[in-house]
């Protein structure tokens, strides 16, 4: 089980400084959608330049023009690029093809997908590298989580790795670990803490035990 740190509400220097504190505990660093929307792929480029040995995920949440978008993120240094599970099959195929050509991976974000099992099965067949259940900020604010969705996709996904994101913190991690995703994505559970290094270490230790 790997740990991905999601960076959403920081600027580029803050993101680079934050990773310096926690890099020993994380496997993947995500440049989050809010950062990319405001600062563009420059944030991805700067992170990869600062940490060439760290796997960088660009959370571009692609919905269309997938081959082109994956290429752009890959050119900036992304190792993993995200597309929405709600995108057309032809977009998913385009993303997978472009990523394969560059030796990169695709993470499909299931945010807002209603029939999660059917779509996860399809995405698995379409060649997704990761299928990620995700409770976004707006539903987190309503007290929702993705634990049940993770259980559901684990029963149907045969080829892809499974992942979970959205409001995960040390306190809720044991429930996640029980279900056994390949990747756990944590943002605020680390970045909102005073001592980010210790928070990341504690989360990583729990994951390693699981
Ligand atoms: O993808 C995310 C969200 O949609 C904002 O772009 C977050 O990176 C993801 O939810 C993980 O962050 P936390 O919920 O703070 O753990």
Automatic annotation (TrEMBL):
Q: Which UniProt keywords apply?
A: Carbohydrate metabolism, Lyase, One-carbon metabolism
Q: Which residues form the Orotidine 5'-phosphate decarboxylase domain?
A: 2-203
Q: What's one Pfam family the UniProt record gives for this protein?
A: OMPdecase
What EC number is given for this enzyme? 4.1.2.43
Catalytic activity, as annotated: D-ribulose 5-phosphate + formaldehyde = D-arabino-hex-3-ulose 6-phosphate
* Keyword hit for Lyase: yes
> What's the protein called, per UniProt?
3-hexulose-6-phosphate synthase
